[in-house]
From TrEMBL:
<keyword id="KW-0694">RNA-binding</keyword>
<dbReference type="InterPro" id="IPR000504">
    <property type="entry name" value="RRM_dom"/>
</dbReference>
<dbReference type="GO" id="GO:0005634">
    <property type="term" value="C:nucleus"/>
</dbReference>
<keyword id="KW-0539">Nucleus</keyword>
<keyword id="KW-0677">Repeat</keyword>
<dbReference type="Pfam" id="PF00076">
    <property type="entry name" value="RRM_1"/>
</dbReference>
<dbReference type="GO" id="GO:0098534">
    <property type="term" value="P:centriole assembly"/>
</dbReference>
<dbReference type="InterPro" id="IPR012677">
    <property type="entry name" value="Nucleotide-bd_a/b_plait_sf"/>
</dbReference>
<dbReference type="GO" id="GO:0005737">
    <property type="term" value="C:cytoplasm"/>
</dbReference>
<keyword id="KW-0597">Phosphoprotein</keyword>
<protein>
    <recommendedName>
        <fullName>RNA-binding protein 14</fullName>
    </recommendedName>
</protein>
<dbReference type="GO" id="GO:0003729">
    <property type="term" value="F:mRNA binding"/>
</dbReference>
<dbReference type="InterPro" id="IPR035979">
    <property type="entry name" value="RBD_domain_sf"/>
</dbReference>
<feature type="domain" description="RRM">
    <location>
        <begin position="1"/>
        <end position="73"/>
    </location>
</feature>
<dbReference type="InterPro" id="IPR050502">
    <property type="entry name" value="Euk_RNA-bind_prot"/>
</dbReference>
<keyword id="KW-0963">Cytoplasm</keyword>
<dbReference type="InterPro" id="IPR034506">
    <property type="entry name" value="RBM14_RRM1"/>
</dbReference>
Length: 158
């Protein structure tokens, strides 16, 4: 059974550490740690359910309560899109409304100028974006609205 573990500090948590945490509840087949979440595969369903019940809310690190639940597969025809170099002025709600023109947006997160979008639509070809498309124009317009940082050479001359 595949278990989702959220609120994990991927920079500070190892697969071995998670395997040791889950091992008292059953056989751990594998662990994969990402930036803020992880997946633990356990052999027995009963052990996995005991681990979920026991470890949900457990603080692996002080102040970081784990979210432990059964992993749910993404819906069919769901596409994961990464968009880079997005202006800090763009909100996730603006981006969500733009991508909803192409399909149902399941998740839209903006993190440090990059966007992660899970969208459900009938074909990946509907998601193809080309220069001059509505998204490119929005991101370009938003970047133009932001004040340009001064270069070091121009500030040093003053």
């Amino acid at each position: 059974m595949k278990i989702f573990v959220g609120n994990v500090d991927g920079a500070d948590t190892t697969p071995e550490e998670l395997a040791a945490l889950f091992a008292p509840y059953g056989t751990v087949m594998s662990c994969a740690v990402m930036k803020q979440f992880a997946f633990v595969h356990m052999r027995e369903n009963a052990g996995a359910l005991r681990a979920i019940e026991a470890l949900h809310g457990h603080e692996l690190r002080p102040g970081r309560a784990l979210v432990v639940e059964m992993s749910r597969p993404r819906p069919l025809n769901t596409w994961k899109i990464f968009v880079g170099n997005v202006s800090a002025a763009c909100t996730s709600q603006e981006l969500r409304s733009l991508f909803e023109r192409r399909g149902r947006v399941i998740e839209c997160d903006v993190v440090k100028g990059d966007v992660k979008i899970f969208i459900q639509c009938c074909s990946s070809s509907l998601l193809l974006l080309s220069p001059g498309s509505w998204t490119t124009r929005l991101f370009t317009w938003r970047r133009k609205q932001m004040p340009k940082p001064q270069s070091r050479s121009s500030t040093a001359k003053k």
